[in-house]
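Structure ticket #2291
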Amino acid sequence: MKTWSDKAMFDLARKFFCGLAVVIGMASAQKLEPWIAERTPALEQAVSHLPQASPGPLAWDTLGEIERLELLGIQTQMFSPPRAARALALLSVALNDTLALLGEAGAERNVALAYAAQEVMLYLHPTFPNLKDGVRETVADIRAKAEGAGVAKEVLQGSARVGFLVGRQVVDFARKDGYSHQAIPQYPPAAPGVWVLPLGRPAAEPGWGQLTPIGIAKDQLAEASPPPAWDSPEYEQERKLFWEEQKRLDDKGREIADKWAGDPGTVTPAGLWQELAVRMLRDKASSPEAAVNVLASLNVAMHDAFIACWKAKFTYYTARPNQWVSTFDKTWKPYLRTPRFPAYPSGHSTVSGAAARVLEHYFPGEATLFEGMAQEASYSRIIAGIHWFVDGKNGLDLGRKVAEQVLKGR
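Resolution: structure written out below.
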């Protein structure tokens, strides 16, 4: 299994930056389209009051600070991986939609995006006063910086108004996407190969598969293919391969497992892909606006992929490896703690398949790099002792299918 250290990953990334500038130039030339927000009368009025002049430039520092604050919130409030992906998607969409609906109006884009981000982050972290204060202070600093640069008061007010209205539309969508619905699964009867909920511990996000995707109709979202039957020759081979792989667990395998673990309290797998994309884009991109476009597609695909993954998990209820191993070896423990939801398919694999496919779309010359990273993320859960090989293989495939749907809608 080939592994990608941070240094190797970015050394490879630097090799394609000559081509990256061309790709980013093409992306920045494309007209941005909104994912959620619409041209309401109030929004049209706010945009019409802005001067018809060259738009003010968007700064990388603005995007970097917004990303830093949201990832801080995700880590500190210990968002689960699906919740983290949703947060990043809503934030990225708010930024993208603000730029899209501003068009060529002479707005102060840093101010507009800051106010859109503020609405979304205050919604995402209602019980985190320190972060909320930090968001408000950051937005005030961005506005003060623009004012100090000589931006007219009416332009600042109009830009803030547009960002606020777009942010409110994204929040209104989020309030209706099913996030707050408390699902009670109908667990199947206990049987070999059927996942069993650990005693005294509730399942994690059992209703996540019922959330409304972004950019894809709910009933059109790609679905995972059924796993093999537990008593089939195919699954007998799965169990054999898994156990053989566990016997090969060494320091390198533990390193891979730790690298991609992404548990609550970290930036989670979606955050790892987000950080990679931002670092690569910021290093050589000619336009922060183009980066907003790429990041929106990336985060929407990861969010939608988690929905598709969780729908499959609570449809097939596939047992985790530790359930099977306990039937013949009571002393064995997986390297990482087994999550509180069914095995099939792997969430890490699904979200990484989606992320890799989106990044390959924008940077086709580096498909090998992104595919290698997705494969490594998938393998990390197998060597960690918490997934079967089929969970990874079909998870990657599901993520790619969701990403294709997202990209097709652009």
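Closing remark: Residues 339 and 386 are 8 Å apart (CA to CA).
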